[in-house]
Design brief:
This protein has 492 residues and is an alpha/beta fold. It is 46% helix and 13% strand. Helix 4 (131-143) packs across helix 9 (248-263), helix 8 packs across helix 9 and helix 11 crosses helix 12. The longest helix has 23 residues, at 331-353.
Length: 492
């Protein structure tokens, strides 16, 4: 198995060194959301990252089956297989049916993902719809001797598995270290080893989501659903498995072990992990007061936000960083991304209107620039380098509009089709919505009021003119009368 995040260094457009197991089909599984809360930036990054992979591989001609699950069961509050199911807890607190909670937040997730212009996956299986298959996989693992039953629960036996297999190979953990705490556990836990993880948990009396199995009335462990649903829809061996870096251990390490223990095969050819997001240099967390949902971002509804940010600004900002690098959100960085995206989109409008020159050649090497763009994409989806090349093109386009550069006819056609494909099809950006709708609409409303005020002044209706000025001022707008009319800004 390839445990190297740089795998797509070998993916080149013309040589096609990336070989799927069964070309032209590519199977890609990505860990989806646990649906018990509003979607936030932590959901947006894997969605945008693997949307790019989906879009680019499709663009290259692969037939990609993209499976992304919905975790609506069995995800306990901590990795030690203890605590309450997060969805069930929310359901209990809000007096709802757990599936009502799951559906509500699934709808919100879908709405946010559409706003970010991510394409829907080919299949979106729910964990709760695959309980029988999960029970079946537990039976296989048990009968192969890699799990044990304890007090109605079933645990994966990491020590037994490690005699012939390398538990820890994805995350670089040393299994001896993971197993070292064994003694302390004696008599205090159902587990033989601290490193063992639950395949099946017996339900406590207050646990709502429960199913019948031979071991107990209970529910499957979280890691199991991804092993089951990925192989069910993509086969025992498939090409790409993605997810956030925080899932590498234990979630993905456990998936590897479960698959090997059940089928004897390594299911995944290539693992890809997107790195984490910080806000103003800090990890995102409810207790830190910097937990910003996507709805907050798009509406500007959070004390840390100076303005609303359009979904396309958020998407473009994410693509400006390599998916393997951490990414820090700040107002200044987002505002710079907003400006950059507007510059890119206005250059696309200029490009559409550009005429070719009569010269035999363009004033710069258009083909080399385009090659650089595809090379960046082939280099492990290196979007920051790709975007730098796009801005090289923007410079040339703007120079050509000023008469300082020129394009030969074929070069111009080639550049237009490439820029359109790269920006809209592959990066998935949209020309409209570079500014947040709210910000734009607000500006239009203020302009409307101030134009009415100008009319009132012309009509010598001083009462109305003053009223508009005073009330806008009270709302936090700074109004300045000028020679030709007015200027305004919002005071934050
Ligand atoms: Zn998963």
């Amino acid at each position: 198995m390839e445990n190297n995040l740089h795998i797509f260094n070998t993916l080149t457009r013309r040589k096609k060194k990336f070989q799927p197991i069964n070309p032209p089909f590519v199977g890609m599984y990505v860990c989806g959301p646990t649906v018990y809360g509003d979607a936030h930036l932590g959901h947006a990054r894997p969605a945008v990252t693997f949307d790019l992979v989906f879009r680019y591989l499709t663009y290259l001609g692969y037939k990609v089956r993209y499976v992304r699950n919905i975790t609506d069961v069995g995800h306990l509050e901590n990795d030690a297989d203890e605590g309450e199911d997060k969805i069930a807890k929310k359901a209990r607190l809000e007096k709802l049916e757990p599936m009502e909670v799951a559906q509500f937040y699934t709808n919100g997730y879908h709405r946010n993902m559409t706003q970010l212009n991510t394409l829907p996956p080919s299949i979106e299986p729910h964990a709760s719809g695959h309980i029988l298959e999960q029970i079946e996989m537990i039976r296989e693992i048990l009968s192969n001797g890699f799990a044990y039953e304890s007090n109605g629960s079933v645990y994966f036996d990491v020590e037994a598995y490690s005699t012939k297999n390398h538990y820890g190979k994805l995350s670089g953990r040393v299994v001896e270290d993971l197993l070292s705490n064994t003694r302390e556990l004696e008599g205090q836990s159902e587990k033989r080893n601290n490193a063992d993880f639950a395949l099946w948990k017996k339900a406590s009396p207050e646990h709502i989501m429960r199913w019948n199995a031979e071991w107990s009335v209970g529910f499957p462990g979280w890691h199991l659903e991804c092993s089951v649903m990925s192989t069910k829809y993509l086969g025992e061996e498939f090409d790409i498995h993605g997810g956030g870096l925080d899932l590498q251990f234990p979630h993905h390490e456990c998936e590897i072990a479960q698959n090997k223990a059940a089928s004897g095969k390594d299911a995944v050819r290539f693992w890809m992990h997107n790195n984490m997001i910080t806000i103003n240099g800090q990890k995102m967390g409810k207790s830190l007061g910097n937990f910003i949902t996507l709805d907050d971002f798009f509406a500007g509804n959070h004390p840390l936000l100076e303005q609303a940010y359009a979904p396309m600004t958020v998407r473009f900002f994410m693509l400006q960083a390599h998916y393997r690098n951490p990414l820090d959100f700040s107002n200044s960085a987002l505002q710079a991304a907003e400006k950059g995206l507007q510059r890119l989109m206005s250059a696309m409008q200029t490009l559409e209107k550009l005429q070719a020159t009569n010269e035999d050649d363009s004033s710069f090497d258009v083909r080399a620039l385009i090659n650089n763009m595809y090379e960046a994409l082939d280099d492990d989806f290196n979007t920051p380098v790709l975007i730098a090349h796009l801005f090289d093109a923007v410079k040339q386009i703007n120079s050509a509009a000023d008469g300082k550069a020129y394009f030969e006819a074929n070069d111009l056609v080639y550049l237009k089709s490439t820029m359109n494909a790269v920006i809209f099809q592959i990066l998935g950006l949209k020309a409209t919505e570079t500014k947040s709708n709210q910000t734009e609409k607000l500006g239009e409303v203020v302009d409307l009021l101030l134009k009415t005020r100008l009319q009132a002044k012309a009509d010598k209706n001083w009462a109305l003119s003053d009223k508009i000025r005073d009330e806008l001022t009270a709302l936090g707008f700074e109004i300045k009368d000028t020679k030709d009319g007015y200027e305004w800004k919002m005071v934050v």
